[in-house]
Structures are given as C-alpha cells and as structure tokens.
Fold:
Amino acid sequence: MAKRSDGGERPPGMADVARVAGVSAQTVSRVLSDHPNVQDKTRAKVLAAVDQLGYRRNNAARMLSSGRSRTIGVVTLQTDFYSRAAVTSGIENAARAAGYAVSTATTASLDTFAIGSALSRLADQGVDGVILSVPLIHSSERIEQLTRSTPTVAIDGSRTDATEVVAIDQTLAARLATRHLLDLGHDTVWHIAGPGQWLEAASRRDGWRASLEAAGRAVPPPLEGDWSPASGYRSGLVLARIPDATAVFVASDEMAFGVIRALRETGRRVPEDISVVGTDDIELAEYCSPPLTTVAQPFAQMGALAVAHLLRHLADPGALPEPASVEPRLVVRASTAPPSRSSSVPRQ
Amino acid sequence: MAKRSDGGERPPGMADVARVAGVSAQTVSRVLSDHPNVQDKTRAKVLAAVDQLGYRRNNAARMLSSGRSRTIGVVTLQTDFYSRAAVTSGIENAARAAGYAVSTATTASLDTFAIGSALSRLADQGVDGVILSVPLIHSSERIEQLTRSTPTVAIDGSRTDATEVVAIDQTLAARLATRHLLDLGHDTVWHIAGPGQWLEAASRRDGWRASLEAAGRAVPPPLEGDWSPASGYRSGLVLARIPDATAVFVASDEMAFGVIRALRETGRRVPEDISVVGTDDIELAEYCSPPLTTVAQPFAQMGALAVAHLLRHLADPGALPEPASVEPRLVVRASTAPPSRSSSVPRQ
DNA sequence: GCAGAGAATGTTATCGATGCCAATAGTGCG
DNA sequence: CGCACTATTGGCATCGATAACATTCTCTGC
Structure:
C-alpha cells in the first residue's frame, strides 16, 4: 500500500484529473497518450484540469500496467576515458530526444560477473532495452539469458548472439593513420595498441597491420598499453630506444600524450625525429605540444546510432539485425612530418 | 493491463513463488525484504523456490506499491569535462554500494528552463532523491517546487532553499595554488577564472584574491574562460603580452593546457618565464609538457559524500542539513618555478 | 495449567494507469 | 426516415507487490 506517512497530501492521480475535467479516467489517459479518438473540446478540458492540478503521470503505475518503462539502460565502463564519456553523451541526447530516460550501470571491471551484474541491475529496473557500451569478451550463460530477454544493442566489440552491433570502423581508422604516415615517406609505422581484450583495439591493430602489408612494408611488433597515459609513457620509453622508429600510430590520444612525453624526455623530437598519430581526437589533442595529429572518432554519433537501432528493434522486434558502422576521420595537426634521415638517432 | 503479446510466457510473479514454496505471497515478500520475523526453514523454502523459478522482483510494482524506487537521479551538465565525469563516477559507485540505481538527466545548458526540465524528467521517473551536479544560478518557481517535493542534494554551487549542499573547498584550492606561487617568490599571481556563473569558479577567484590581499600583493584583473582548452588558449595569448606576469593560477587543467600552449607559441617558456598552476589534476596533467602543477580535487569523494547525504536525508527527512566539504590538495610538478628576473620579457 | 506477550504467517485492500470491450452519440447514405 | 457504421467515451479487470490488520501458533511466567 502506498505511503500514507505524509500529511494526507497525496499528489493528484488520474482519477482526480478525471473528476475535475468531468470525464472518465480512461479519457484522461487517452489524452495524455495522444490518442487520436478524442474530441478537441474534451482534450482541452482535460489538459486544463491537468494544468490546474499540476498533475504528473505516475511512471511506476504506467510501467506496471503497460509493461514498458520508456527507459533504456546503458552498461558502461567506469573510467574517465574520453571515449566512454563521449559515447554516453551521445546516447543520452538521442534517448532524450526520443522521449526515453537513461539509466546507467557502470562496471569497474570487464569480467563476466561484473558485466552480468550490471546487466541484471538494469533488468531489475525494468529497462525496455540495453546498450552495452563495454567490450564483452567472454559471455556467460547468465549474460546470454539476459541479452535474450532484454533487447540489447552492443557498441563496438561485444560478442553475444542476441545482440545487434553498432560500431565505428576501426580498421579504417587504423588505415587512415597508417597511410598518412606512409604517405609522408616513413618506411614503416610502429603501433602502440590498446588492451588486447578490447575489440576496438584489436581492429585497430589489424587495420594497421593490413595497411603495412598492403604497402609491402615491414611490420614491427606492436606494443600494448591499457589506454592510460601512463601506459603510453612506458611504451614511449621503449620506442625511444629503437633508433629506426620514425613513426608511430597510437591507439588513443591519452596514450599518445604519454608517448610524446616519453619521447621528449629521452631527447627525441616530435615530429622531427618521430611522428606520432593518436586516436579519438579528444578536446585536448589540439593543445598538446605539438598539437596532435589524430583520427577523430564520431563517438556521439555512434551513441545516437545505437539508440536508433535499439528503438527500431523495440518498435519491431522482428526486424533484421543489420549491423551498422560510422566512419572515423583523419585530423592532421603538427605531430607528424616527413622523416628526416639525419636525425633518427636517439640522443639519450 | 500488462502486455500479452509474448507467447503467453510471462515471467514468474511473487504468487508463483508463493505457490511453489507453499506459503503466501506476503511471506515471500518478507523473505525478500529481509524481514526478521520469518522462520529459517520457511526462508529457505522460499529462497529455493525463487531460485528454481528464476524469479526477480518486479520493480515497477514494488515502486507503485511502496512509493519508493531506490533510484537516485543525477542532473549533470553534458560535457566531456573531466570534473563532471569524475563526480558522476563517484556518485554511481556510492549509489550502487548502497543498493540504489542511478538515473541520469543531462542538460546542455545552464538556464533555468533546461535544468528545470531535467529535474522534472527525473521526478517523473519517480526517483527517491536527486543530486544536482550543475551550478544552479537562477532558481525558478518550478525548480523550487521540484526541489521541495523531492529530496535534493546540491553539489557545489547550487542555490536553492530546499537543498543540502556538498562542496569542495574551492577557496582553499585557490589559496593553495596562490600561496605556492608566492612562496616560490613571485610578486603576484594572475588568474584565469572559470565562467562567472559557476560558484566553483567564483570561489576560486575569491580565494585567489584573498590570498593576494592577505600577502599584501597587487591583485591583477582576472581573465575569464569557459573551462575549455580553447578559452585557455585565448587567455594565454592575452597573458603573453603582459611582460611582468610571471605566475598564473588557472581554474582548470583543461584551460591550463590551452594557456601553456599559447605561452609557448608566443615564446614564453614554462616554467622559466612564467609559472602555471592548474586545477583538478586530470590524468593527463602529469603528461603535459611540462608536467602540470595543479590542485587535485577529490571529485569522486565528493560524489560519494553527496550520495551519503542524500541517503541520510531519505532515511531521516528531519535531519538537519549540515553542509559538508572535502579538501583539495596541491600537487607540485614541473610547471612552476621561482621567477627568473632576467627573462620576464616576452620574446615575441 | 492458563493467560498473555510476541513471533510467524495469511487476508485483503490498494497503489495509479492501461487495455479490452461495451455503450452511446453522431453521420452518411440508400 | 431509418439502418449501418464510426467516432467518442466510460466501465471494469488487471499488472505485481506491499502495508495494515487479522489470525494462528509458541512460548514464558506465575
């Protein structure tokens, strides 16, 4: 039974509105749901009553009765990394525009259990659908079951049977970066990849390798970071000790910052001695020194696309799960330049 | 009426569990709510039935009946700025730990209408309480009413009657930064502030001014940015033209990146010619060149504190709204140094 | 051995909105 | 002028869980 604790001052219900407007509750419901079959005069009366009472539809009741909540859940990794925030932002905008609320469940780690529990928290809340914005490496019976019972769209790098996938073409991103460096005249391009479990990272690595192979260049062994600037810094220190490395494609701008710092500290100039291309185009990329050449990722757009897919799926559960992807774009700034043969020796 | 669309396969309800366990629905409810007055044997039977049926409590029904949703809403500004993401992160963690779900409503602008509509979206969703994580400058009747009817905790810089406030001591942050620079021997310290409407920005400005005055130094006119690196860059260009500016305290790391870039481009060295202190301690601050001296803000901690306050208030609506604040901390890196009298002339 | 406190469990009304179906009021057309 | 038909509107059961209250059972203490 509902709370009676407050001083008898209960917020108005549909029945109250109906009474004031002199119609039935059902009609009020129809007006509020934009049903076509309501006379303008009646609609006006109802709306006036709604306004007068300051009535707001009770979402809980609505949800219980209709079985839908007009809420979409987002499972996302809890980090400060730019990319996640940008995607979430895009999702929220698109959802709001479509009249959906957004409920977030963050997970601190990527293991099956953590993701599963984030999913079930959302399921318990009764979300209509879920956007999985984490790389789902291993699935589990529990996860499969949850994604089967709740419409789910996976962003970039989730592997489940019951989900549609929306992605940015990361292979293309890597190709753009690699080609740019080769076109500048570099013999080959090194790569600092993201963590192997992330599909995004793997795709970028593949795209980079493919580009080099297509151009008939040597493929240096890739280094691996964890997206953090600190890991970029560590990789940068390694790179600095390799005399003939003149160009590197880094899988995130944040790591690129670390790489550049490491290179400078060890006396390698950017871009004179070594060119660096990042990925993401975070806002600070332009204010790094030197300003970072990078591959911009349409994160917000992807978030919006994910919402669109989810809504389409909700509207018509039978629709075919056609995968979609959006394209990244190269942004050339000042961290890349043609190789200068003379100065490819580390000073350190 | 609930959806009948699916093939008659309705998820199990409490009644089903009750039937399987051979008890009443009420008892099931008690078991699930950890009521004390249930025999262990009964509890076990119920839990077994729950497990067997894969039963999950229906949140909508729960909410409708009990009047509470165990969900807290967060109103936040839609940006990629580090600080907002960090706060939200802290909120989510704390909320999850307390068994609360989090629903987010972002607003693109700070005007009364936008914030009001974010608040009402949350209210419509039936959140138990709200954390206002945006600077609320002007209130409105609508907002006052919403914050009165829904328990609200404001983070840093919201001005409403009906809200508790949790904040980081920004005055202290500014004092730490300013004192650090004065202690290094600078005659005075310039300031690049955040947007005037943000209480955070105003407090930092006040703290900075107070520190200078306390030390009997001249107070230069503050410049103002909008938190973005681009605005920092613009302010940096102005600063570069002021020959006797040897130290600057910037109200955010992101702006500080822009400032440093502008200074370097115009030939002023950091920190030799001019010292820069940022605010926030974003992850990239350490990888700026030079590594940025900054005032670290315990954002996540503040988010957690906000949740704690809100929950306390929910548990005991009568409790006094004691304001709380957490303390920032100075992190000295390499962007600050004693002034070198010789080189305080711009090269440009 | 019995009254009465208190634990354990069941009964019932209700929360607020919606869907289905019936009822009523108009409308067009033969 | 009346019938078939449609646009409006109301009645009622229902979603799933909870709170208040009732009831049954189990022990103490005297």
Remarks:
- The mean pLDDT of chain A is 88.
